[in-house]
């Protein structure tokens, strides 16, 4: 074993001369076969496997050599070698060594030495060499009694490559086939989307179940192989699961990764210091619209055709595109005391802008969240004065100067539509909403429930106000939908007249006693009811308490 490592690091020309001397001493046909057998046994750990993809790790500036020989009795047919660099450019070459034919001619010692030197140079030849980081395939016709040597060298840094040798090019392809035109077409570009298309691979048409397209999106550059892309992502400080892991469980993901499954498409989004990297497998579809991109940003797109059985892949010619700039949002003017109802599209994630010019030092902004989740951002003369997620009813009292310019920007924080009511006014303006209690929850008393009635209670305020109670019969499977989809800004005008129970006025200067109860009668046994309470202030705009679901007793 120690001797084999010694021979491994000998310079190539010394190795060949040594092998040549050995073969010249035994020039017969049987000796030639014995020579090859001995050599194979000597270098058994460095023989390149036939019909199998081999991963080879290269150390910087240290060449690595692999050998292969074609069977003596096989029919002459083309063989191929495919090398895939997984990182930096490499140098690789194929050398062929042919056994010397017959004995050397007799003569003096000097003549024999010259003859040996001539034979050495004529029997060792380089038939192919390449330098770069592209996937390269060599195909050639074999020679009998020939030993082939592959030499690989990385001069930039440690790296790894994959090598695939096959002596049977007619039995199928390990690597999926690319179409004659492997380019990716950009069909459309928007501020946050890019639509791509590419021609079908012949492999997809033949093996639909085991072939799929995977798309890689990043902000750095294109990659010439899936192997190179995964290596680059790992070097940025993350671990990217292999392509096959895309069809497996989320537990394979790292903390920096997010997996999204929608419309039978599986996406892995990796967060790196160099930007976001997405890997999306789309089955056998040859068009795809990449969503949720950043405006005015250049992205690089690579498509790989992947064999799910072997994990081998082939790369289309990558492309790039720059997303469009986000159009300037339409700005709506806020007027003193006027209420604006804003509906936000959660899917498009667009900003809705409102502007207001102050006429007084103190300004009062009021927001009533009607549905969904919304983030508000307020600036005064270009400087941020408030920014937060809205919840229920929210007031902002701001102090500045007359003629200050305020800009209010609203954005939905979820994919479903959201809505909010907004008012801006001087601080002394008549309030839009009534004085609110400490809590807007409705309480029910379990011990007071009967088969025909339910008793509920809610908090009031120190200000005399009007309260209206509504009820609605619902089913078990409607509870979640009713509670989640309720429009918290809608008033009793949206309710059916038959749902109204009563309206009453009350207040108490002592807040600890500002509580009222009501027993709702005429209900059915064992039935679910949804109860709502609306509070009306001086402006007439209602505030809806949180809905309460109560079930009457089944037996009494």
From TrEMBL:
Stretches assigned to the Fibronectin type-III domain: 229-326
An example Gene Ontology molecular-function term: heparin binding
Classification via Gene3D superfamilies: Immunoglobulins
Cleavable signal peptide: 1-21
Ranges in coiled-coil conformation: none
GO cellular component, one term: extracellular region
One protein family per Pfam: NDNF_C
Localization per Swiss-Prot or TrEMBL: Secreted
InterPro entries from the UniProt entry: FN3_dom (IPR003961), FN3_sf (IPR036116), Ig-like_fold (IPR013783), NDNF (IPR019326), NDNF_C (IPR045805), NDNF_Fn(III)_1 (IPR055271), NDNF_N (IPR056225)
GO BP annotations listed: nervous system development
Chief site of localization: secreted
Keyword annotations: Glycoprotein, Neurogenesis, Repeat, Secreted, Signal
Role of this protein: Secretory protein that plays a role in various cellular processes. Acts as a chemorepellent acting on gonadotropin-releasing hormone (GnRH) expressing neurons regulating their migration to the hypothalamus. Also promotes neuron migration, growth and survival as well as neurite outgrowth and is involved in the development of the olfactory system. May also act through the regulation of growth factors activity and downstream signaling. Also regulates extracellular matrix assembly and cell adhesiveness.
Record protein name field: Protein NDNF
Source species taxonomy: Eukaryota, Metazoa, Chordata, Craniata, Vertebrata
């Amino acid at each position: 074993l120690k001797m084999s490592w010694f021979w491994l690091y000998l310079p190539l020309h010394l190795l060949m001369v040594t092998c040549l001397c050995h073969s010249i001493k035994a020039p017969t046909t049987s000796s030639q076969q014995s020579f090859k057998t001995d050599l194979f046994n000597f270098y058994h750990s460095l023989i390149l496997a036939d019909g199998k993809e081999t991963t080879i790790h290269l150390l910087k500036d240290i060449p690595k050599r692999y050998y292969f020989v074609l069977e003596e009795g096989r029919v002459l047919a083309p063989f191929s070698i495919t090398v895939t660099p997984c990182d930096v450019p490499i140098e690789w070459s194929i050398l062929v060594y042919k056994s010397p034919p017959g004995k050397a001619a007799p003569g003096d010692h000097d003549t024999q030495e010259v003859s040996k030197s001539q034979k050495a140079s004529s029997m060792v030849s380089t038939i192919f060499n390449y330098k770069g980081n592209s996937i390269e395939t060599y195909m050639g016709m074999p020679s009998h009694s020939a030993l082939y040597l592959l030499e690989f060298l990385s001069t930039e840094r440690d790296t790894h490559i994959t090598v695939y040798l096959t002596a049977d090019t007619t039995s199928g392809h390990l690597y999926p086939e690319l179409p004659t035109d492997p380019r990716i077409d950009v069909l459309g570009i928007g501020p946050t989307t890019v639509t791509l298309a590419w021609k079908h691979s012949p492999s997809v048409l033949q093996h639909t179940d085991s072939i799929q397209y995977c798309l890689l999106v990043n902000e750095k550059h294109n990659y010439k192989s899936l192997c190179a892309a995964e290596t680059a992502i790992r070097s940025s400080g993350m671990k990217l699961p292999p392509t096959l892991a895309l069809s497996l469980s989320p537990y394979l993901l790292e903390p920096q990764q997010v997996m999204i499954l929608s419309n039978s498409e599986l996406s892995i989004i990796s967060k790196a210091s160099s930007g976001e990297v997405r890997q999306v497998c789309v089955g056998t579809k040859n068009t795809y619209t990449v969503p949720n991109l950043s405006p005015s940003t250049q992205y690089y797109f690579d498509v790989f055709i992947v064999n799910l059985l072997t994990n081998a892949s082939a790369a289309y010619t990558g492309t790039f595109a720059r997303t469009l700039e986000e159009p300037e949002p339409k700005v709506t003017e806020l007027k003193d005391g006027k209420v604006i109802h804003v509906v936000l599209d959660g899917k498009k994630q667009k900003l809705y802008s409102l502007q207001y010019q102050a006429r007084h030092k103190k300004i009062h902004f009021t927001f009533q969240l009607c549905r969904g989740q919304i983030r508000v951002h307020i600036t005064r003369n270009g400087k941020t004065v408030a920014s937060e997620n809205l919840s229920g009813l929210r007031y902002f009292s701001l102090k500045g100067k007359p003629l200050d310019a305020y800009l209010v920007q609203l954005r939905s924080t979820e994919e479903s539509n959201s809505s909010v009511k907004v008012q801006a006014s001087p601080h002394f303006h008549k309030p839009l909403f009534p004085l609110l209690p400490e809590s807007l929850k409705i309480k029910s008393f379990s011990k007071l429930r009967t088969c025909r009635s339910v008793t509920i209670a809610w908090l009031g305020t120190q200000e005399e106000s009007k309260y209206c109670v509504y009820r609605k019969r619902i089913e078990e499977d409607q509870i979640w939908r009713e509670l989640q989809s309720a429009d918290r800004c809608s008033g009793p005008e949206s309710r059916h007249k038959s749902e109204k129970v009563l309206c009453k006025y009350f207040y108490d200067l002592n807040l600890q006693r500002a509580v009222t109860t009501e027993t709702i009668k005429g209900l059915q046994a064992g039935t679910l009811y949804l109860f709502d309470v609306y509070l009306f202030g001086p402006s007439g705009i209602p505030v809806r308490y949180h809905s309460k679901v109560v079930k009457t007793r089944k037996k009494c």
